[in-house]
Amino acid sequence: MNQPQLDFWKDVAIIFGGIIALTTFFSGTFEYIRQGHQHRASNFVQMRRRFLEDPLFRDLLNLMATDSAELKDTPIQIRRNFVGFLEEVALMVNSGLIKKEVAHYMFGYYVLLTDRCENFWDGLDRDSQYWAVFRQLAMQMKGLNEGPSAAPSQLKF
User: Fold this and answer.
1) Is the pLDDT of residue 155 over 80?
2) Are 67 and 105 members of one domain?
3) Is 19 contained in some domain?
4) Staple 108 to which of 53, 60, 104, 149, CB 3.0 to 4.6 Å?
């Protein structure tokens, strides 16, 4: 083979190799993004299940629906754990693991219910620095509640 033919085939091989490298890079990037979404969705489903299947949380929610005076008799640790769970949701929002619109749609009602339930906070210092993350989440949820809500089809991980 003469030199011009070798140069031609060398150029073809370089171009072909570049196309394969770019295709591999883009498919790898796409798979990485897809796995990130899948991981976030899995974490979210586990959180939601933990929240709704905990009998202590369900009992609290039933009492909070009417701001029952029985909430004052509920052990403080159970109430702390409940608010702590809602703070975990806030931390996931702050970390970008859950979009705030998704958190609002799935947990906003419970955050706002907790925030306005006076008997729930009996014996707890709502204004303590240790509940700052919860208070910030409640303010965000109030803001989202007052504005136009996202269409359910637009809610994504």
Assistant:
1) no
2) yes
3) yes
4) 104
